[in-house]
Every structure is written in structure tokens, then in C-alpha cells.
Amino acid sequence: MSAELLQRARGGDRDAFAALVESHRGELQVHCYRMLGSLQDAEDAVQETLLAAWLGIDGFEGRSSVRTWLYRIATNRCLNLLRSSGRRPVTAAPLPVRPPEPTRLGEVLWLQPFPDVLLGGLSDQAPGPEARYESREAISLAFVTAVQLLPPNQRAVLLLRDVLGYRASETAQLLGLTEDAVTSALKRARATMAASRSTDPPPPPPGGSEERALLDRFVAAFTEHDIDALVALMTDDAWMRMPPLPFEYRGTAAVHRFFTAVYLHWRESDQLVPVRANGQPAWGDYRRDPVTGLLHVTGVYVVGLAGDRICELTRFEAALAPYFGLPRTLG
């Protein structure tokens, strides 16, 4: 931290304040996304964090790093949002066909994907020595989904301790808790996360030949609307999800029933445009307008991989396409 920059920021110099905090914006957004599960809510939380930091810069005494100070503000902003009734309302267009009976109703309806293009702005600072999760796992949809099922305090403690690697004493100070409370919350959070952790093999290296071969087969099956070929690529306990719609299907039989039920609508898909989300392969799904001939984006699909199989297929609303640089129409 530059003492000169801090002094200038305290004197009302916005450029100096921006120089102090801008390098942390990307990682704060990822942290807020992990806390909230929503890209849009995370953006709002980061804006509120930076505004609060600017208004409170006079109160920053430099006893911690600027980064830790910002994490304290951001985490507590997220906790306030989670405990309030003011979260962004979850809305979704209904499916054009009646889906089959789901395996269960979705529990994380507010979940949104995180574009990989935003991960490039992360700080180079490594997590603390007590971190338990590698960065790739800690941004995956499966991890973020599991975190959303934790109570707010457990969620914050787990992310600060096991993802960012803060010590128990530091976490207690960040959250205004006792060390005993932090230790207790972490124990319960770890137990919940362990119960939800998959035993599937790890995904192949991103961009490697194994991943490309599997994804080529997926795209071919999807664009040819071959249900049997698509399901054959999946693990026996694969998930099909579509937040914010409250439908989840688990297992190849349930996934097969779903695609059979929506086949007439699904076969209108004409093109998949590749992107990446949460460190995972993703695509914008486009359908051709029979009148104009233009391709219109209708959703974003993200796949989870396990070895040489697909373990999760999640469809998100088309409204999220601009975050991935996906145009609304293609010629």
C-alpha cells in the first residue's frame, strides 16, 4: 500500500482512491459471486463495497492491508443482502412445453454463470496457506451451487478460510465474530460441503485434446438432436438444471425423459457458439427465425465434465448472453 496514495485518497483524491482499490475489483466480484450465486447481485455488491470504502476511507487506519479491508466490507455487504428481503427477484419465462416430473425442484433458483472473461482480472495474490480449495474448483458451478445451500455465516466463514486462506483470527475480525464461533461455523460448513462433494473423476485439462474430443461429441449430439447420443455421453448420475426454472433432473433416465418431452422445441436449436463460464465449457444456443432468417440467442448452456463424461448440463436464460459477448442475433 502506498502511504502517499492513502493520504491523497483521504484528502478526496478519487484518482488516488481508484489506484488503491482497482486492482482488487476482479477478485472482489468473484468473492461476491461465490457468496451470492448471482453475477448481477455480485456486481451490485461490488459497487456498494467500493462506494462504502470511498465514504469510509478516513476511518481506514492501515492496521490491515487495503485488500483485507475491502474483503471485510464486501463480505458484510453480501451478508446484509442475504439476510434481507431485498434480493433481486427471480423471474423466468415458462417452458413452451410441459416438462416431465422433475427429480426434485431446484433449490438454487437464483444461480447464474460467471464468464471466464472476467476471471482474467483476478489478483495475482495467491490464497493463504490454509486454503483448501484450488481456484478452478472454487469457481465451478458445482462448488458455487453447494455454497448457496449454506447459511450466510457458514458461507462467509468457509469462503474466507478455505478459499481465500485467512486464518481463524483474521476471519473472526473480518466478520466481527469470536474465534470459537468461526471454528464452529467452519466445522458445520465443511461437513455440508463434504456431503455434497462428487466422487466423479476430475475433468480433463481445459483446452486439451481430451476435452476437445468430448465437447465435439457433445456439440454433434446436441445440434443433431440425438437424445440417445447425448445421454450416452453422461455419467449415470448426471444433473440437468435450468435456473431460474424450478426443475432439476438427475440420472440418465430422467435426463432422457426431459429431452424427449421437449424434443419438438429443442430441435429448433440450430447453432451453438462456444464460450466459457466458471472455468467450464459453455455455449450460446441460437435458433433461426423462419421469417427473418436471423439466428436469435435463446439461452446459455454450461457443462460440467468428469473424466470422459458429462456430469452436469445447466441451461441459463438468454438475458445473460451479453455478459459472454454473445450477440442477440447472428446473420
Automatic annotation (TrEMBL):
Domain annotation RNA polymerase sigma-70 region: ranges: 20-87
A GO BP entry: DNA-templated transcription initiation
UniProt keyword Cell inner membrane present: no
Keywords, comma-separated and alphabetical: Sigma factor, Transcription, Transcription regulation
CDD domains: Sigma70_r4
Domain SnoaL-like: 216-311
One Gene Ontology term of the molecular function aspect: DNA binding
Top-level taxon of origin: Bacteria
InterPro entries: NTF2-like_dom_sf, RNA_pol_sigma-70-like, RNA_pol_sigma-70_dom, RNA_pol_sigma-G_actinobac, RNA_pol_sigma70_r2, RNA_pol_sigma70_r4_t2, RNA_pol_sigma_r2, RNA_pol_sigma_r3/r4-like
Residue span(s) of domain RNA polymerase sigma factor 70 region 4 type: 142-193
Region (Disordered): 188-211
Sequence similarity: Belongs to the sigma-70 factor family. ECF subfamily.
PANTHER family in UniProt: ECF RNA POLYMERASE SIGMA FACTOR SIGG (PTHR43133:SF65), RNA POLYMERASE ECF-TYPE SIGMA FACTO (PTHR43133)
Subunit relationships: Interacts transiently with the RNA polymerase catalytic core formed by RpoA, RpoB, RpoC and RpoZ (2 alpha, 1 beta, 1 beta' and 1 omega subunit) to form the RNA polymerase holoenzyme that can initiate transcription.
Protein name (Swiss-Prot/TrEMBL): RNA polymerase sigma-70 factor (ECF subfamily)
Annotated source species: Kribbella antiqua
